[in-house]
Amino acid sequence: MAEPDPTRTPKMRADKVSVFYDGKQALKDVSINIHDDRVTAFIGPSGCGKSTFLRCLNRMNDTIPSAKVTGDIELDGQNINSDAVDVVQLRARVGMVFQKPNPFPKSIYDNVAYGPRIHGLANTKADIDAIVEKSLRRAGLWEEAKDRLQESGTALSGGQQQRLCIARAIAVDPEVILMDEPCSALDPIATAKIEELIHELRGRYAIAIVTHNMQQAARVSQRTAFFHLGELVEYGKTSEIFTNPREVRTQDYITGRYG
Ligand code: ADP
Ligand code: MG
Predict the structure, then answer these.
(1) pTM of this structure
(2) What is the pLDDT of residues 20-72, one digit of tens each?
(3) Which CATH class is domain 12-100+174-254?
(4) Which of the ligands is closest to the CA of residue 49?
(5) Nearest 5°: phi and psi at 161?
């Protein structure tokens, strides 16, 4: 279950990960490997634990006091939950984009420059300018934003705000980008732009995306993991999951038998 491609070393490895909220188990023994030049989609009905699992991968569950995480999670073979890991550094290496675009109430420029500044990735104005431009270009926002860098990020459209949040994640040179239903607040055109962007970013970053939209999972991912009631039911090549699932529960979900 953990490894659809045993010949390769994974970028991230989750081994028997469980999550409890106030003692109530929300995620059960999930083992999964994520590779670095692929998009991995997490699908399944609402409440099945997709966001909970995604948050394990950069320790965002640390911010939820009732949450307790057990099991092992490694990034490049290193245990991310060890005391030796600086969680701020970890979240730069494993960036996150949320369901609702959440730019800082700051300028477009400062939204992108903030991370590189606090991480000391650039010292001079010219260096920061270069990172801002590169990140906005990679996020497909440069042409729309270059003449309004000092305007507030919150003045952008929803789709632009989401691309700004992707630029903000990219600015600190992440290795993995986690996206939790990044298009659910966007219209179809803005959604198509984000999907196109995911295609372009693949190869440079490992990408894990939660989506409740099966068509989106089929379009953007190479690997799909199907969750149900806190369990990882099936994990494999996206094409196989959608055309020839091994498990009855997966089959029922992709044919729309439950929502
Ligand atoms: P999904 O993203 O697949 O919709 P979640 O990971 O959000 O599912 O939720 C999985 C389960 O954990 C659900 O039963 C949900 O109610 C519970 N849960 C999620 N977040 C919290 C939280 N902060 N506190 C308590 N329970 C939570
Ligand atoms: Mg969710």
Answers:
(1) 0.95
(2) 999 999 999 999 999 988 999 999 999 999 999 999 999 999 999 999 999 99
(3) alpha beta
(4) 1
(5) -60, -40
